[in-house]
Structure formats: C-alpha cells, structure tokens
TrEMBL record:
The lineage of its organism: Bacteria, Bacillati, Actinomycetota, Actinomycetes, Kitasatosporales. This is Dehydrogenase. Residues 9-20 have a biased composition (Low complexity). SUPFAM superfamilies: Glyceraldehyde-3-phosphate dehydrogenase-like, C-terminal domain, NAD(P)-binding Rossmann-fold domains. Keywords: Oxidoreductase. Residues 165-309 form the GFO/IDH/MocA-like oxidoreductase domain. It comes from the Bacteria. The keyword Cytoplasm does not apply. It comes from Streptomyces venezuelae. Residues 1-23 are annotated as: Disordered. Residues 27-150 form the Gfo/Idh/MocA-like oxidoreductase N-terminal domain.
Length: 411
C-alpha cells in the first residue's frame, strides 16, 4: 500500500476518527450480511486505507430481519448500527448510499425505494429477478442520475486487475477483430443430492439458478470485454436433481408430491449457450453448479485476428496473451503477471509480484463507485448494464424452453 499509508480509512460511523481527513463523509447502509454482505463490508472497511478517495466512506448501519443476528453481524463486520427494517435503514440521515446484498427477490423494491429517497445505490448481481423489474430499476436510475444520484450493479469480476487489463488490451485493438469469446463458470456445490433446498434453488427467491448466479457474471464480463451487447442466443438448461431436502421451517408450499420433506427445485442447475455479437464474434458460455471438483472456476479465452487472451480466476494475477503478429517460430502464449503499478488498480497496493485476491475486487468496486459519486460520472456497470445482462438471461431461458431455438436479444 503506497499511496495513503497515513490516511484514515473507512470509519465505522461510531465517531472514531471522523473528519480527520477533512473529506466529506459518505454514509453507507447495507442490507443483508451473509457471504456477499461480508465481502462488501471488507471492501468498505478497506477502500479508504488503500486508495486516495474523494469522499470518506462511513459504515453507518447494516440491516437484517433477525435483531440478534444483525447486531452480531454489525460488530463482526464493522458497522456502527443495526436495523431490522430496510425502510428504516433507507430513512436514516447518516445513510447516503444503500448497498443491497439480499437475494434477488428484494432487489427491485429496495433499490426503487432507495433511489426515490435520494440515495445512491449499489445492488448485487443479477440486478433483478425479471426483465420487467430490471427495466423499472434502470429507468429509476436514469431519472435519479439527473438528480446527481449514482446506481451501480455489483459485477465485481470487472475489478480483477487482469480482466480490467484484458478490457484495455481489447479496446486498444491488440487482438484485432474478435472471432471467438469463450467463457465458463463452474462450481460443484450441488453435486451432492442431499444439499438442501436453499433460497438459491427457488425461482421465487433467486429468479434463476446457475444461469443468474454464475451466468450473469460471464455474460457481463463478455459484454464488458467485447464492448458490445450480446445480439442473440441458443441455449440449453437442465435441473439434474429435481427434489432436495427442505430446510427447517420451510414454507409448506415448497413440499413435493405427497407432502414429503423434499421440496421441488424450481431453477436450473446448469446453463449452456452460444451467442452472437453484433460485430460478428461467436461466443460460448457454460454456467454450472455440477462440475465436480470445480469450486469457483471462472475461465475465459478471446481469439481475434491479431491475437488471443486467456484468464483463469484460480490464477487471477495472471493474464495469458498471444500476439499473432509475431513470427510464428518464436510466438506463443506468454504470461503477463498483472502486478505492475501501471496495471489497473495495482498502483495503490503492493510492490510488483505480491499479488491480489478475490476480496480486492470488492475494494476496487467501492473505489469506483465513490469516484463516480464524487465526479458525477456514469458508473460502470450501471443499472442499464445490469438490464442488458438480464435481457440475455431471459433470452437464454426462452431459447432453452424452445429446445435451443436462436432467440434475439437486440430488437
Ligand atoms: C455463489 O454461487 C456465488 O457466491 C455467487 O453468488 C457469487 O456472485 C460468485 O462470485 C461466487 O459464487
């Protein structure tokens, strides 16, 4: 960390060191505190201690339905106060930005209320559970932008330095005309058929399964890297295990045939699809929770007329690059170690070669959002970008329902 060794970072709003930097405080209120909430908290706690920020984030309050649990989470994660009603969190004077880390079924309602109340919003991916919700959110974000509010969606993998570098290299034309875009996102936590029916396996809560959870990330990354929206898709989806044990206290509506303690899985376990980009590139995507042995394997490769790029999240400090304009006898993929000060985000961290990890993407996300708020710049990814991903997810479901018929996304 070179830039701001002595600067106070994010405060927990409890008054500790508030104002010592002379920077305008910006109160953050977060809804939800499970895995993503913990990851976002890490980002908010760290961002001001690493980057030179235009405002000073303050961890004002966290919200969850269970009073005891949310208070414990507040202490553990560094939030000054706890709320049990998200409307109360939005109404707080010390909350300028609402960070939504809940399941997808509440994204739209909370985001719309927060924007209406004049707050900035960060919303976890996928933006919503349906295109209609995402459209309403994107429209509200556009109206709020005219009032100086910022709304961003949490596609954190854009903030892996190697992927931001990949975007830069594609935009610079280092790959020439893109021909192939290949992305896979593989996990294995559903291979075990006794894994219970959590909210992620229910369409009413999560919208879709591997498609929305993992597919949303790789669709966003593909559109970000190519710099264009997907034009159309042909898809297959599958639910390999259709009934799973119900969780304690699950609503009776989830019970499978005959009232057994098994419930019906209402989302996909896997989605495989091909796509076209307007410029002519062909893409393939695979998102699954059934890839035994693959824990969080996000991989991609781009092939262009002048070269190729490849990335593997398990080696996230590296980007492989093949320059096809070099003499064939000595060319080939070479490994770029993305830890140099002039690589995206890296300058604020450690000396070359020391490397970053998953959690740093949330620090970078917080940094980019705070800069957008301070400068009034359009945030990336915006709610409009989230809507664009949502349209691809819907087209994938439509195509899969018609046994893979090509389904246009762009009109
Ligand atoms: C679960 O599958 C999950 O936590 C996703 O929801 C995240 O977005 C992804 O980054 C890791 O896996």
């Amino acid at each position: 960390m070179r830039e701001t060794e002595t600067e106070a970072g994010a405060d927990s709003g409890s008054g500790a060191d508030s104002g010592s930097t002379g920077k305008r405080p910006l109160g953050v209120g977060m809804v939800g505190y499970a895995f993503m909430g913990a990851a976002h908290s890490q980002g908010w706690r760290t961002v001001g201690r690493v980057f030179d920020l235009p405002v000073r984030p303050v961890l004002s309050a966290v919200c969850g339905r269970d009073g005891g649990a949310v208070r414990a989470a507040a202490d553990r994660l560094g939030w000054a106060a706890a709320e049990t009603d998200w409307r109360a969190l939005i109404a707080r004077d010390d909350v300028d930005l609402v960070d939504i880390c809940t399941p997808g079924d509440s994204h739209a309602e909370i985001a719309l209320a927060a924007l209406e109340a004049g707050k900035h919003v960060l919303c976890e991916k996928p933006l919503a559970n349906t295109v209609e919700e995402a459209e309403a959110m994107a429209e509200a974000a556009e109206r709020a932008r005219a009032r100086g509010q910022v709304a961003m969606v949490g596609f954190n993998y854009r903030r892996v330095p190697a992927l931001a570098l990949a975007r830069r290299m594609v935009a610079e034309g280092r790959l020439g005309a893109l021909r192939h875009v290949r992305l896979t996102y593989l996990q294995d936590w559903l291979v075990d058929a006794s894994f219970p029916l959590t909210w992620r396996l229910r369409k009413d809560r999560a919208g879709s399964g591997a498609l929305g959870d993992l597919g949303a990330h790789i669709v966003d990354l593909a559109q970000y890297l190519v710099g264009e929206p997907v034009a159309g898709v042909s898809a297959l989806t599958e639910t390999f295990v259709r009934e799973r044990p119900l969780l304690e206290g699950a609503p009776s509506g989830l019970t499978a045939e005959g009232g057994s303690r098994l419930g019906t899985v209402t989302v996909d376990d896997a989605a495989v699809f091909t796509a076209r980009f307007p410029s002519g590139a062909l893409a393939s995507f695979e998102a699954t929770r059934f890839a035994a042995g693959r824990k969080n394997a996000l991989r991609l490769e781009l092939n262009g007329s002048e070269g190729s790029l490849a990335f593997d999240l398990e080696r996230l400090n590296e980007l492989s690059f093949h320059d096809h304009t070099e003499p064939a006898a000595s060319s080939g993929f070479r490994r770029i170690l993305v830890t140099e000060p002039d690589h995206p985000y890296v300058e604020a961290w450690w000396p070359p070669g020391h490397g970053l990890g998953y959690e740093h993407t949330f620090v970078h996300q917080a940094r980019d959002l705070l800069h957008a708020i301070a400068t009034g710049a359009r945030p990336e990814p915006s709610f409009a970008d989230g809507l664009s991903v949502q349209r691809v997810l819907a087209a994938v479901e439509e195509s899969a329902a018609k046994n893979s018929v090509y389904t246009p996304v762009l009109g």
